Amino acid sequence: MRLKIVALLVLVSGNLFSQEINKAKIDDYLNYVENNNGGIGSVSIYKNGQEVYNRSFGQGKLVPVKYTKETKYQIASVTKMVTAILIFKLVEQGKLKLDTKLSDFYPELPNAHRITVKNLLEHTSGLGNFAIRDGAIWVFDKVTDQEIFEEIKKQGVSFEPNEKVAYSNSAYILLRMIVENTYKKGYNKVVEQEIAKPLHLKNFVSAKSNPTNTFKSYTYGADWGEIKDIEYTNVIGVGDIASTTKDLNTLIVDLFQYKIIKKETLELMMPIVGKEDWGRGLALFAYDDHLFFGHSGDVIGTHARLIYNPKDKIAISYATNGERIPSNDFMTILVAIIYNKAFDLPEIK
């Protein structure tokens, strides 16, 4: 009997990531990046619900930029995960359904009578990217919601709902508008009320709340120089939130601990492994046989990634405002270190 109990305990514990994370090896990697001007950013790692690693790197190269451990990064499209959470909270409250038609809110939009909230969430609506007009990004300077809305109408749809999956910024700005319409308040206020305050996120702010102590975007030439990024009030609900990596990890850990939405609701957000890469606000990130769920974000000069492995209870958040190593390459190495696997240091050109 005792042997059976021991075997059972081994089987159960084998489903959890038990080895220690090699913090020194992560430090060595980030030292390499920093010393070779390979990037500027921040990394946070949570294990079993607790932060076990947090480090910023490269900021000292930004002379004379002032920063603290609470200086925020723009998280770009990781914001979409937040918008999806808010939509699902409305679903839980019975104020919205996944099969609610877009025409219930905006009947004048193309295919609105066929496109559902679910289509908007999972990028199967056929809508496009409002931020690209005539082949170029046009949202560097402030524009109105009405101008954006007219651009969405003008672009129309490229396929019928459910025909295929195509990433759509237009879909998520419409979801943000639905959030505001249903909550009867601005997106920034909803984020504060439903996400930031309940989870005690002190450095998690939507653009119209005018976040302070936020990094600008940089690119590397002979040295690091500031570059103009998009106007974040043009991408509210799509890519406007600023945060620290610690607050990002708190968000995703609390999400997977069902502190924000119910377990069955979270399962609706997640992609079906083996069938979908995109879920309904969460995407699948596979590193060998390690499966993470979360979201990535990219604009002109800032990039972010927030992922969680529910099997091993590992959360990783990464944000950069000066990228020379592509985010996916950066994260692949970081995951390899965490799981004690071989990797090659990236070439920094």
From TrEMBL:
<dbReference type="InterPro" id="IPR050491">
    <property type="entry name" value="AmpC-like"/>
</dbReference>
<dbReference type="InterPro" id="IPR012338">
    <property type="entry name" value="Beta-lactam/transpept-like"/>
</dbReference>
<dbReference type="InterPro" id="IPR001466">
    <property type="entry name" value="Beta-lactam-related"/>
</dbReference>
<feature type="domain" description="Beta-lactamase-related">
    <location>
        <begin position="42"/>
        <end position="331"/>
    </location>
</feature>
<protein>
    <submittedName>
        <fullName>Serine hydrolase</fullName>
    </submittedName>
</protein>
<feature type="signal peptide">
    <location>
        <begin position="1"/>
        <end position="18"/>
    </location>
</feature>
<dbReference type="Pfam" id="PF00144">
    <property type="entry name" value="Beta-lactamase"/>
</dbReference>
<keyword id="KW-0378">Hydrolase</keyword>
<keyword id="KW-0732">Signal</keyword>
<dbReference type="GO" id="GO:0016787">
    <property type="term" value="F:hydrolase activity"/>
</dbReference>
